[in-house]
Amino acid sequence: MAKSTLPPTVLHELNRQLNHELGASHSYLALSLWCAARNFTGFASYFAKQSGEERTHAEKMIDHLIDRGAVPEITAIAAPNRDFSSLLDVALQAQAMEQANTKGIHAVYEAALAAKDYPAQVLMHWFISEQVEEEAWCDEMIDRVKAASCAGSLSDLDRHIERHLAGDGK
Ligand SMILES: [Fe+2]
Ligand SMILES: [Fe+2]
Fold this sequence. Notes:
Blueprint: H1 8-37, H2 41-67, H3 87-114, H4 118-147, H5 151-165
The structure holds fe (ii) ion (2 copies).
One fe (ii) ion (FE2) binds next to helix 1 and helix 2.
């Protein structure tokens, strides 16, 4: 195993954030199950896909650590919230998660800037752009759920939510 080239502060931040991404994957799965149990199959599918994407985010960071001679430390993941009063409540939870995730991503980037760690800075550029998209999706989802106030409109929205938020093939 090669000697790690990572500054300790960056290693710490990347390790913290990759576990945060795994936690986000867990939380999105809980949102998906809440929706599936209430026959919001479109939202369930969308959140399940998000759960998978959060896992790939963790894996990107894991690969970076491994490539640079560090061993990622996987921590325990807390049980996600599963008590929601409405689909809007679920959408707000997703938005709060993404906002917290953006803060975490920025904290990694700030550590990489402070340590003049250029490889980690380039890695984080992808995540910074990704978070702009993810937050935009959440904002749009909340607007659409608010607009679909009656049950008939909500089930219509459910049928099309993936097309609205992610486009075909995403
Ligand atoms: Fe993520
Ligand atoms: Fe995300």
